[in-house]
Design goal:
heterodimer, A: alpha/beta, Rossmann fold, 37 helices, 6% strand, B: mainly alpha, 51% helix, 0% strand, globular, transmembrane (chain A), transmembrane helix (chain A), SGNH_hydro_sf (chain A), membrane (chain A)
Chain lengths: 845, 85
C-alpha cells in the first residue's frame, strides 16, 4: 500500500472503529490493561532503572486505567494531578512541595502581565539566582535532591516554552502548561527528552485513542529491550582503555563504547511511551540511529527531539537572519552555531544536574568535528540532493550495496569519534591506537561481521512512513507490531523466570540473572573504587552510569575535601595530611595532630611499658566521614586499653597514619616516617586492588617524572619500558605484566624494614562495603603479603550479610560510616586477640 | 501583490521537481505530511523557503518554519497565500 493511500484513511478507520476523540472500546481497553500488567511484571523482573521507577510505573498504569474513561476535558487536569503525585511518590512530600513551588514561580514569570522583554529579563534573573544556588554560592532551604529533577524540567523546556509563548497565537491553558513541565515520568529521569511544547499540545489525542495507547506500549517494550541490550554491553563488553592490547580489543572498545548509548535511547522510549498512555502522541525519539548512512543522517536520527529543539530555537532563527549572505553561507554558519550551542548546552546541562560546569577539550573537539562533518554533508546535500521516496524505496543491488557501504562506513566513523569523546583523556585515546601493533587474530572479525549483518538486515527496503498516526498504518503492519510487542513481552518474561533460565545451563542462568538487575559495571565499580581510594571522583561524562550516582552527591558532601586536608610535600609520596589541622564537618570533627596524624596527640617516643603500633592505610584508616574517636583504629585502641592494659603492657597506643588516597607504594614513605615513632608493630591496612593500584601509582610517578627513591621500583619501570612523560594509560598497560612484582617489592621492603626496626609487620585486609571487582585480586595480595613475611589478618568477610546502606556513608561514597567502623573494630580486635602472642611482643623492638 | 496565485500547484510542482524527482505526482497529496514524513528536512525546508522568498518576494519568519506551517502542501500554500496578500 502506498503512503498516500494509507494516509487517505481517517483515524480509526482501519480498526473498524468510529471512535470519538479519546474514546476506547471495552475490549481494546482490557487488551491495553493486560499488556500493561505484563509490562509492569517485566519492569519488576528486570528491575528496570530503579525501585522508584517501578513505583512510578505502577502509579502511571493505575492512572491510565482511570484516565482512559474520564471525559476528555478532565484528562489533562487528571494527568497534572497524577504527575504531582508521581513527584511526591519519588521525592517525598517536602522535596515535592519545594519543587512545585519553584516550578510554579518560574512558569508564573512566563505569564506575568508585562512585556516579553521584561518577562525574559525576570526569567534570566531567576535562573541566575538558581544557578548561584546550584553552584553553592547562595544558600537554599531545600534539599540537593531537587536540583537534577528541577534542572531536567526547566533547563531546556523553559526555553522552548518561552519561545512558543512569544510566537504562538493560541495561549496555552494552565493545565497544558503544568502538564508540560510536570510530565509524570520526569520525576525519575534527570536525562529527559526535550519535548516540544507545540507538538505536545498539537498532537494531544489527535488519533484513535486505542492506537495511541498501543504505540505507547510498543515503545515502552522497545525501551526495555534497549535497556537489556545496554546491560549486556555495559556488563560484558566494555573495556577500560588500559585493557585494550590488540586490534580485536580495540574494535570491541570502539563498538561497546558507542553502544552504551542504548541506555539513552531505551530511557527515551520508556518516557515517551508512558506519555502516550495519556494521549500525548509525540514523534519518535530515535530512528534506527545505528543505520545512519551519513553524518547529517546520523544527526537526524539520533536524539531527534534534541535536533528539533536546536533547529527551532537556534538553527532557523540564525539561518533566516543570515539568508542575505546567500543560502550556502547561511547554512554553514547556522550549522556551526548549532554545534557550538550543542556543546555549550551540554556543559549547561551538566551544570544543572551536577552543579559544576563540564568544560573538557574533548567535548569541544567532538562537537566541533561532528559539526564540520555535518556542514560538509549538508553542503553536499544542498548541491546534489538526497534520495527521497513517497513509498517503499525502489532499490537495485547496486544502490543497496552503496547504502550498506555508506552505513557501514558511517557506523565505524561514529564509533571512532564517539571513543574520542568518551575516553578519559586525549592522551589515553591516542595510546589506544597502539593496540594496532598487537596480535592480529580471527577474533577481530567478530564485531565487523556482526555489525555488517545488522546493517544488511536493516537496509532491507521498507515503507518510509514514519511519525504519522498509527491509524494510518495498514492492517498487516499494525498486526505485525502487535505480534512483535506481545511476543517480546512473553519471551522476556519467560526468560526472566529463574526456574526456567536455570534449566538452560548454569552459565546461561548466571547471565540472565546478571541482566535482571541494574548495577554498576565492572569498570564503573572500579572507577567508584578509584574515587574511593583516590578521591578523584572524575566522572565527567554522561555515558557512564556512575555519573548518576555522583549526581545525587551534595555539593559540600563532607564540608572538607581531601585536597583541603592534605598538602603537597614533594617527594615520592607527594602529599601528607596538614599537621594541626582541625575542621568540624557534618560527620564530626577531623583533627590532625602535630605529626600529621588523624589522631590524638602522642609523645614522639613510647613510654616504657607502652605498646605502640602504627596503622598505615588510606582514607578508611584515616576515618573519612567519621568523627574523631570513631575510627576503627581509635575504637580498637580504647578497647585494648580497657581490656588488656595491665597485662604484658601498661598501655596501648595505635598511631593513625592513614592518608586519604594513598596507594601501596606511597606507604613505603609513610613506613619510613613511622619507624621514627619506634612502634612495636606496623599494621598495614590493605584494601581491594592492591596489585593494580600499586602498578598504577608507579605509572603515575613515572608519568609525572617524580624521583623514585627505590631501586626495585625503578628497575621494574625500566623493564616495562615505561618512561618519563609517557601517557599514564599506556604506562599502566606496559606495567600490567609486572603488577605483582611491584606489590611484591612494596610489601617485601615494608616487612623487611619493619623487622630491621624491631617492629612486627602485620598485614590486615579490609574489604570495601560493596561487593565488586576489588575482590579479584584479594587472594593474590594475601599470598604476596604472606610471602613477604607479614602476620596476616584477613577480614575479607567483615561486612558479609550486612545491609550496605547501614554501613556506608552514602550511595556515592562507599567509605564505612560509624557503624562500619565499629564492625571493623570488633573484628580487628578478635583478629589481634588470635595473633596476640605473635604481635604483642614486649621484646619486639 | 497578486493573490490569485495557485500556490498549491506551485508548491507541489516545486517539491516534485526539487525533492521527489520521478515520483508519481498523484501520490503527493495536499495533506501528505512532508516534515514528519521525512520529505522536508531542515535543508529542504530552507531551500523551499528561500525559493518562495526569491520567486514571490514573500518573507517568512523563522518560527514559521515548523510542522504547523510547512508540514503539508495545503498548509504551505495557506501560509504563502496569507503572506502574499
Amino acid at each position: 500500500m502506498t503512503l498516500t493511500a494509507v494516509l487517505a484513511r481517517a483515524p480509526g478507520q482501519i480498526a473498524g472503529e468510529a471512535a470519538e476523540k479519546g474514546q476506547i472500546s471495552l475490549v481494546n481497553y482490557f487488551l491495553v490493561v493486560a499488556q500493561l500488567a505484563l509490562l509492569l511484571l517485566l519492569l519488576r523482573q528486570f528491575q528496570i532503572e530503579s525501585a522508584a521507577f517501578l513505583r512510578l510505573a505502577m502509579l502511571a498504569f493505575a492512572g491510565f486505567a482511570i484516565h482512559a474513561w474520564l471525559p476528555l476535558r478532565m484528562r489533562l487536569p487528571f494527568f497534572v494531578m497524577l504527575s504531582l503525585a508521581g513527584i511526591g511518590v519519588v521525592m517525598g512530600g517536602v522535596n515535592a512541595a519545594w519543587l512545585v513551588t519553584i516550578s510554579l514561580a518560574l512558569v508564573g514569570i512566563c505569564h506575568l502581565p508585562v512585556s516579553f522583554a521584561w518577562r525574559g529579563a525576570l526569567l534570566l534573573g531567576a535562573a541566575g539566582i538558581l544557578a548561584l544556588q546550584r553552584a553553592g554560592h547562595l544558600p537554599f532551604p531545600w534539599s540537593d535532591a531537587i536540583w537534577p529533577i528541577l534542572g531536567a524540567m526547566f533547563m531546556f523546556r523553559l526555553i522552548g516554552y518561552f519561545y512558543d509563548l512569544r510566537h504562538d497565537k493560541t495561549p496555552p491553558s494552565p493545565a497544558q502548561s503544568l502538564a508540560y513541565f510536570f510530565m509524570l515520568p520526569n520525576a525519575c529521569f534527570p536525562l529527559f527528552p526535550v519535548i516540544d511544547f507545540k507538538t505536545f499540545r498539537r498532537n494531544y489525542f489527535d488519533d484513535d485513542a486505542y492506537r495511541i495507547y498501543q504505540v505507547g506500549i510498543d515503545w515502552m517494550v522497545r525501551g526495555v529491550m534497549h535497556l537489556i541490550l545496554y546491560r549486556i554491553v555495559y556488563y560484558y563488553l566494555t573495556l577500560a582503555p588500559h585493557e585494550v592490547a590488540n586490534p580485536a580489543e580495540l574494535i570491541q572498545y570502539l563498538v561497546s563504547n558507542f553502544l552504551l548509548y542504548l541506555r539513552v535511547s531505551g530511557l527515551f522510549h520508556l518516557i515517551v511511551g508512558m506519555l502516550y498512555l495519556f494521549g500525548f502522541r509525540l514523534p519518535e525519539t530515535h530512528n534506527r540511529y545505528l543505520l545512519a548512512s551519513s553524518f547529517t543522517d546520523f544527526w537526524r536520527r539520533i536524539n531527534i527531539y534534541w535536533k528539533e529543539f536546536m533547529q527551532k530555537v537556534f538553527y532557523y532563527p540564525a539561518v533566516f537572519k543570515l539568508r542575505k549572505l546567500g543560502t550556502e553561507k547561511a547554512l554553514v554558519l547556522a550549522t556551526l552555531y548549532v554545534f557550538l550551542m550543542t556543546w555549550f548546552l551540554h556543559a549547561y546541562q551538566w551544570f544543572w544536574l551536577r552543579g559544576t560546569m563540564l568544560l573538557v577539550a574533548q567535548d569541544m573537539l567532538f562537537w566541533g568535528i561532528l559539526g564540520l562533518l555535518v556542514v560538509a554533508n549538508s553542503l553536499y546535500e544542498m548541491r546534489h540532493g538526497r534520495a527521497r521516496s513517497l513509498g517503499t524505496p525502489t532499490r537495485t543491488w547496486r544502490t543497496t550495496a552503496v547504502l550498506v557501504f555508506k552505513t557501514y562506513a558511517t557506523f565505524w566513523f561514529i564509533c571512532v569519534l564517539w571513543s574520542f569523546w568518551t575516553t578519559e583523556s586525549l592522551g589515553a585515546w591516542v595510546s589506544l591506537w597502539a593496540a594496532l601493533g598487537g596480535e592480529y587474530t580471527a577474533r577481530m572479525l567478530l564485531y565487523p561481521s556482526v555489525v555488517l549483518a545488522v546493517i544488511i538486515a536493516g537496509s532491507i527496503p521498507r515503507e518510509s512512513l514514519r511519525n504519522v498516526r498509527a491509524s494510518a498504518q495498514d492492517d498487516r503492519t499494525w498486526m505485525r507490531s502487535r505480534l512483535v510487542t506481545v511476543a517480546s513481552l512473553f519471551a522476556l518474561l519467560t526468560v526472566s523466570v529463574e526456574a526456567l533460565h536455570l534449566q538452560l545451563g548454569k552459565d546461561f542462568g548466571t547471565f540472565v540473572h546478571s541482566l535482571r538487575s541494574g548495577q554498576l559495571s565492572r569498570l564503573d565499580t572500579a572507577q567508584l573504587e578509584r574515587g574511593y581510594y583516590e578521591n578523584l571522583l572524575s566522572v565527567d561524562r554522561f555515558n557512564s552510569q556512575l555519573w548518576e550516582v555522583y549526581m545525587n552527591k551534595p555539593k559540600n558532601w563532607l564540608d572538607v575535601e581531601s585536597t583541603n586536608l592534605k598538602h603537597f610535600v614533594g617527594g615520592f609520596a607527594q602529599t601528607e595530611l596538614i599537621p594541626s589541622f582541625v575542621q568540624t564537618t557534618k560527620h564530626g570533627t577531623i583533627s590532625i595532630n602535630r605529626f600529621g596524624m588523624r589522631d590524638r596527640d602522642y609523645e614522639a617516643l613510647p613510654a616504657a611499658g607502652t605498646f605502640r603500633g602504627v596503622v598505615l592505610g588510606a582514607s578508611s584508616v584515616m576515618g573519612w566521614g567519621v568523627g574523631d574517636g570513631q575510627t576503627f583504629e581509635a575504637v580498637v585502641e580504647d578497647r585494648l586499653n580497657r581490656e588488656w592494659a595491665g597485662g604484658a603492657f601498661d598501655k596501648y597506643e595505635l598511631l593513625n597514619m592513614g592518608v586519604p588516597g594513598y596507594q601501596p607504594p606511597q606507604q613505603l614513605v609513610m613506613a619510613e616516617k613511622a619507624f621514627e615513632f619506634q612502634p612495636h608493630a606496623i599494621f598495614y591496612i590493605a584494601t581491594g586492588h592492591e596489585i593494580s593500584r600499586a602498578a598504577a601509582y608507579l605509572a603515575e610517578a613515572v608519568n609525572k617524572g617524580i624521583d623514585i627513591p627505590y631501586d626495585g621500583l625503578r628497575d621494574i619501570a625500566s623493564k616495562a619500558g615505561v618512561t618519563v612523560g609517557m601517557d599514564e594509560g599506556e604506562a599502566r598497560k606496559r606495567l600490567t605484566p609486572y603488577r605483582r612484582e611491584v606489590l611484591t617489592y612494596v610489601y617485601g621492603r615494608i616487612a623487611e624494614e619493619s623487622r630491621k626496626h624491631g617492629s612486627v609487620p602485620v598485614w590486615i585486609f579490609l574489604p570495601q562495603v560493596r561487593e565488586g571487582s576489588w575482590q579479584e585480586e584479594t587472594a593474590e595480595a594475601v599470598a604476596v603479603a604472606d610471602a613477604a613475611g607479614f602476620v596476616v589478618i584477613n577480614q575479607e568477610d567483615v561486612y558479609k550479610g550486612r545491609n550496605i546502606d547501614e554501613i556506608r556513608l552514602a550511595e556515592w561514597d562507599d567509605h564505612p560510616n560509624v557503624r562500619g567502623h565499629q564492625l571493623i573494630a570488633e573484628r580487628l580486635f578478635d583478629g589481634l586477640a588470635e595473633k596476640r602472642e605473635v604481635i604483642f611482643q614486649p621484646a619486639g623492638r | 501583490m497578486e493573490t490569485s496565485i495557485d500556490f498549491r500547484r506551485i508548491v507541489k510542482d516545486y517539491i516534485l521537481e526539487e525533492f521527489l524527482p520521478g515520483e508519481n505526482p498523484d501520490e503527493l497529496t495536499d495533506d501528505l505530511p512532508l516534515i514528519s514524513g521525512g520529505i522536508l528536512d531542515s535543508i529542504a525546508t530552507l531551500k523551499l523557503v528561500l525559493h518562495f522568498e526569491e520567486q514571490y518576494g514573500i518573507v517568512l519568519e523563522a518560527h514559521e518554519a515548523d510542522k504547523e506551517h510547512l508540514d503539508t502542501i495545503r498548509s504551505i500554500a495557506s501560509l504563502l497565500t496569507s503572506k502574499a496578500r
